[in-house]
Amino acid sequence: GQIKWFDYAARQGFVTLDGEKRDAKVYLDVLRKAQKASHVPRVKPGDRVFCEIQPREKGLRVTRILQLQAV
After folding, report:
1. What is the Cα–Cα distance from 6 to 29, expressed in whole angstroms?
2. How far lies 29's CA from each of 18, 19, 20, 21, 55, in Å?
């Protein structure tokens, strides 16, 4: 997918998923782990994300980011 937006002050954002009609919420703690591994200091809209998601009551949530690529 791609980072749709991320607000560091709110500690959350959304990922637009490839092949899905819904976006997935991503929280800062999940993002921080991927940023350390990929050396991407701050994400911006359009950055590529390869992630694991889980359905929740209020929608989809990113539970793990496998790879993060800045564009």
Report:
1. 12
2. 22, 25, 23, 25, 18
Residue 11 CB: number of other CB atoms within 10 A? 13
Nearest in space to 28 (alpha carbons), one of 48, 47, 6: 6
Question: For residue 37, what are the CA distances in angstroms to 11, 16, 30, 32, 58?
Answer: 19, 21, 12, 9, 29
Question: Closest Cα to residue 23, out of 3, 37, 43?
Answer: 3
The structure's pTM equals: 0.89
Using the 8-state DSSP alphabet, how is residue 34 labeled? H
**Tens digits of per-residue pLDDT, 15-66?**
999 998 999 999 999 998 888 777 778 899 999 999 999 999 999 999 999 9
